[in-house]
Structures are given as structure tokens and as C-alpha cells.
Prior knowledge:
By secondary structure, the protein is an all-alpha fold. It is built from five helices and no strands. The longest helix is centred in the first third of the chain and has 14 residues, at 18-31.
Amino acid sequence: MPEPELVDHVARSTGLSPAEAARVIDDVTAYYRETVDEFVRRRHRDLHQRGRRNAEIYAEVAGELADRLFAAPPLSERQLRRLIYT
């Protein structure tokens, strides 16, 4: 269960019920609990299924890592490859 103050704030600012606000908060925090390894593998799979080539994927995933809430170190193309294929 998310912090009651956060639930109240989200409910007030969005017009959601407290139960709906708590569910949204849970969904968002679950999304950002993904580890670096899980994120890299998921994004590679998603982009690969869309027909993207690995060189493009590596560049895009490296850029996306900087915008995520987890503290990801800068990863080289080789490190990204190792995460995906290990």
C-alpha cells in the first residue's frame, strides 16, 4: 500500500477515488522497480520485435537508461550485449 499522503495527493489532484489513486501509484512504482538488466532485456526484445537492428537498439537503450529512475551506470555497447544474451 502506498503512503497515505501520496494517495490523498494523487486522489485530490486527479479526481480519482483513493482506491483508484492507490492502484495507479502501485502500477507506476512497479514499472520503475524493474532492474537495469530486466529493462535492457525487455527493451531489446520490444524493439527487436518491431524490426529494429541491434546497432539502433543499443543506442536507443543506452539513451533511455539515462532517463530512468534507477541509477544505471553508463553502459557500453558490449555491456548491453552481454546483458541481453546472458
